[in-house]
Amino acid sequence: MPPLPAIPEFHLPQWLQRLHQRLPQWPHAIPLCCALNLGLRLKALPADLRALCEGKTIRLVLEDGGSEARIVCRNGCFHPDWKAAGEADVTFRGELHAYLKLLTRQEDPDTLFFNRQIAIEGDTELGLGIKNLLDALDWPPPFLEKLNAPFERLFGRGQTCAQHGAGSSKNSN
């Protein structure tokens, strides 16, 4: 399988952020919950994630996108937090490029958190537990293969992490 193209540091346009801030936020949680529940069912995600998150509200903020997803784990399944009332138990904040680097394993989670590209707020013990579970995650090759085509369209063909500077502190974009 060819390597995924390197994800450069980029920022979503301001107009997109302003637009997203005016839209309801709950729809963002639906695909995230579906992916997490599928990952648990296929055993691609550690079962410890279910126990760690049970009864907890988790908020993911896409800072440059002006959007967020709030999810809650109840009875071993992730659900959108339809009410979105009150504080989340833990909040993860970051820009899209940082989340994509985390998802594709192009950057070590510790590096992303240490460099404050992704921040944890609230229950740091819960946040670090989730981060450690993500760090131990190995995506199955079919999942990564499905990412190749869209990532090549977005970030260029044939560029590997080393060619694009992924793993270094900051790109000049």
Number of helices: 8
Q: State the end-to-end distance.
A: 28 Å
Cα Rg: 16 Å
Biggest sheet strand order reads 3-2-1-4-5
How many β-strand runs?
Answer: 5
Average of pLDDT: 80
Which regions have little confidence, pLDDT < 50, spanning 5+ residues? 159-173
Question: Helix fraction?
Answer: 40-55%
CATH architectural category: 2-Layer Sandwich
Structural class: alpha+beta
Approximate shape: globular
Give the CATH level 1 class.
Answer: Alpha Beta
- List SSEs in N-to-C order: HHHEEEEHHEHHH
Written description of the protein model:
The chain has eight helices and five strands; from the N terminus they run H-H-H-E-E-E-E-H-H-E-H-H-H. It is of the alpha+beta class and 173 residues long. Strands 3-2-1-4-5 form a five-stranded mixed beta sheet. The chain is globular and about 40 Å long.
Quick overview:
By secondary structure, the chain is α+β, with helices and mostly antiparallel strands. The protein has helices at residues 14-22, 29-41, 48-53, 96-103, 109-114, 124-135, 141-155, 161-164, and strands at residues 57-62, 67-74, 77-80, 90-94, 118-122.
Identify the notable features of this structure and list them briefly.
173 residues; Nonspecific Lipid-transfer Protein, Chain A; five-stranded mixed beta sheet; single chain; 5 strands; alpha+beta; 8 helices
Summarize the topology:
Layout lengths: L13 H9 L6 H13 L6 H6 L3 E6 L4 E8 L2 E4 L9 E5 L1 H8 L5 H6 L3 E5 L1 H12 L5 H15 L5 H4 L9
Parallel strand pairs: 1-4
Antiparallel strand pairs: 1-2, 2-3, 4-5
